[in-house]
């Protein structure tokens, strides 16, 4: 706590942020190494992989709330308590092979999982074809 003009405020030191950034960098680098190794999801878990999972899960312990949202069809929403927890949540979602970002199909509106950083706009070839077909029909004709 820091007193500024008679008001108590919570503050974090530069040294704390420097340590947290170094810790996050280390775990992301470890994940990059582990992810580059082949693993079929069965059998013996590599100790490095286990260490990454334990570290990320441990960093989120006590810093996350989850809520089944009634107005979103019971969708479970995650509520981190800080920016640092939000960053670890994004890493945890990557560990679970779920995208941190998803988009809706431009044709049918279904959510497309696993888009990551791709430019995917349609859930399948059918929707892409239908979209382009209807888009061409609505385009004004060119004059000769």
Shape: extended
The helix count comes to: 4
N-C termini distance: 74 Å
Determine Rg (CA atoms, Å).
22 Å
Helix content: 40-55%
Mean pLDDT: 81
Q: What class would the helix/strand composition place it in?
A: alpha+beta
Characterize the main sheet: 2 strands, antiparallel
Which series of helices and strands comes N to C?
EEHHEEHEEH
Low-confidence parts: none
Strand order of the largest sheet: 1-2
Number of β-strand runs: 6
Strand percentage, roughly? 5-15%
Topology:
Elements: E1 2-4, E2 7-9, H1 14-36, H2 47-60, E3 64-68, E4 76-80, H3 83-95, E5 103-104, E6 111-112, H4 125-138
Helix pairs in contact: 1-2, 1-3, 2-3
Structure description:
- The protein is of the alpha+beta class and 144 residues long.
- It is built from four helices and six strands; from the N terminus they run ββααββαββα.
- A hairpin with a 2-residue loop joins β1 and β2.
- α1 packs parallel to α3 (83-95).
- It is extended.
- The mean pLDDT is 81.
